[in-house]
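Researcher: Excuse me, tokens okay?
***
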Amino acid sequence: MNNLLKIEDFLSIGELSKQTGIGVHTLRVWEKRYGAPLSERLPSGHRRYPKEEVPRLRAIARALESGYRASKVVTGTLEELQKLLGAQDFMSTSPDLPDSESGQVSRELIIEKWIEAIHQYDEESLSHGFYELWSKEGPLNFILEYSAPFVERFGNGWANGELTVGQEHFATSHLSDFLSSKWRQLNVRKDGPIAVLSTLPEETHNLGLLMCAVVTSLTGFRVVYLGPNSPVEDILKTIEHCEAQLLCLSISNCVEPKIAKDQLKQIRKNLNKKTNMIIGGEGAQDAAPGIIRLNNFSDYFEWISQLNK
């Protein structure tokens, strides 16, 4: 650090986090990914951040709350952020800080807090975060605004080496347990039309299917959940036995496209024409005749709500 600069003009990353409401891990990810916030290195090797970054980071937090993406605002100057958000007094020494308890922290910051919990294998913080947001936002918004982006975020974190395989499994396990308990609660004593939820054979990923189960359970449908890696013959037998009106299949990008296409054709060919067939997920290709492909859970909820009117 430059000898002309005073140590009291700088903060540790923990102090910076407390004064801005932005998690330590998020600050580190931003610095690595975007080169901001800038830090100085002490002779000891520790990093310190200038106090002048505090109002800028508070402005960034407000921008994220307003719906801006981190990639668009993290490197912005305070003046640029003020213009973006309007003439607000971001230089105030006692602004309203983002607060997860009051629901002011942006979705992106909440998800990054969950990523921090994954890094620390902090089961209590992760579970508390899920239950808190479920109660505050409701099941549908939890899936659309938090769960689906969270799955994408920690999946990308594993792919780029930020998260280990163990950490990815830790996240998957805890979210799976949470979603499983919640959709089953929603599905209790349902007597409406039946929707069978499954994956194709050899598919081992189930988070997309569990999120689908939550969304489906919010409608008049009763869910029959087969889970991952279901043989085609068993899927067809279940639909016939239950006289299901709907089949939902979650397909990840781990499934070989040609194999998936052939299996989908086989299922549709042997399916009652009155049974609707929906596919979704990163591995879902353009649908064949008689198969509806939906790109997100918002579209799915709108479609299934109309179906059950």
Remarks:
- The longest helix spans residues 165-187.
